[in-house]
Amino acid sequence: MDSGLDVLLLESGADRPDERTERLYEGTVSDARMHSPPDRYRVRRFGGSSTLWGGRCMPFDPIDFEERGYIPHSGWPIGPQDLQPYYPRANRLCEAGEFAYTAEAAFERPIRPMIAGLDSDTFTSNTLERFSCPTDFGQRYRHRLQDGPVRVLQNANLCGLSHHPDGRIESATVRTLPGKQFSVQARVFVLAAGGLENARLLLANPGLSGAGIGNAHDIVGRFYMCHIAGTIGTMDLSGAASVWHGYEVSDEGIYCRRRLALRPQAQRHLQAGNFIARLHHPHIPDPGHGVGVLSLLYLARPLIPYEYGKRLYGDDEIPASRMAHLANVLRDSPATARFLWHWLTQRTLATRKFPSIIVHPRNRRYSLDFHAEQVPNPDSRVTLGTGVDALGMRRLNVDWRYTARDVDTVRIALAALADTVHAGGLGRFEYEPDNIEEEMTRYGAYGGHHIGTARMGADPRSSVVNADCRVHEAANLYVTGSAVFPTSSQANPTLTIVALSLRLADHLQKRLSLEG
Q1: Displacement of CA 446 from its chain's centroid (Å)
Q2: Domain check: are 301 and 268 in the same one?
Q3: Total structural domains within the chain
Q4: Glucose-methanol-choline oxidoreductase C-terminal domain location, by residue (predicted)?
Q5: How many CB atoms lie within 10 A of CB 451?
């Protein structure tokens, strides 16, 4: 639909990856064990990081928007009702089908239970993850930009924002790697450059305070969150009548997967953050699992992209294991061959790709993959470093930190899950409680989820943007994306980023129409 507005989209990258452009993301990290280099998990090209995402979609839960006394700095200035009108359209844009995120809502036909006999006031297994193709937004929606009122200018890097004495942004300075420079004037400016780069752009421009746009109270770049994630223990479900931890396909052809989710009332009672867990395959580097498919993945690890290999394998090297892995592949060759055919037809050659590797152990013994909310922490932050990039922009330094509250969320949830499994006669969950912190930080911050660096709130002293995503001190500057999320939820951020952006688009159209 034509909004009647003249929109210019500045895109740093081209259609294809470019090494010089990607290096503009380079920076430093305070602790290399805790966070990947800033140029990892991000793609500076048309379509951005949607060119490499896994496609996992789910909305935030209503509890995520609440101010919770046991979660410091929690509470959004908007509620789930403010995003609800936009989630269905976001689902369609992400090509994840209908906005239906429980098994009951998504499937009219009966589907097999995830864990037969699970009946708990603490955990549910009926909430879903739905999977995009995964959709490359650049490729998928380029034609809408070409045929519509939006002009796209590629290889154009936003570097400066000049402001009027009242704080309004007057113009943007744009530079190219070959050395050209020009300015852009507009009635309204929107930063949609990702959770790290949005903060970098705000900090790099002085604003009214001289400390960065929106940074009069030193909030920009603070409260940096990812997610707390890891794999731990052995879940033995031999007592359950049946177990199905794979994918179901909805009537519209969407891959859906259930997970174990800590119920909202349990979160409040236990004073834990939001938490989900998935049944996971045995540890890949250890050939003792005897599974040919997993050993094949280990032998193919040089071919796996960094973004996924880090968590798929970790840093473990099992001495003299290659021959043992090869023996697993040969011994389990029929199953390995079936896997390869399935992967070729349903992943490599398919438009809608099978989302991940699923292994069904005969003995119903799994490891547990968990994904948890990270508490907002003002000491976890990104700042401008000392180096500059090829455009003269100061690079970022990332100092990601977790807190004891984050460890507590995982500790409390795992203990509650072990009790649930045992009390239901389903089996047992065995893990080392003393190893929880080590396991949840084994690979550091969860790669591509950059959250909270320009948080939303009503008070300019503790937030950067208001409920409409407008920077408090600049009447015509907006920020969108996960940078504005006050809390992280358990959910991957993409679907909520899209929904929030649609809400912002509606707001801007109404505002600019009224202004004439």
Answers
A1: 8
A2: no
A3: 3
A4: 376-500
A5: 25
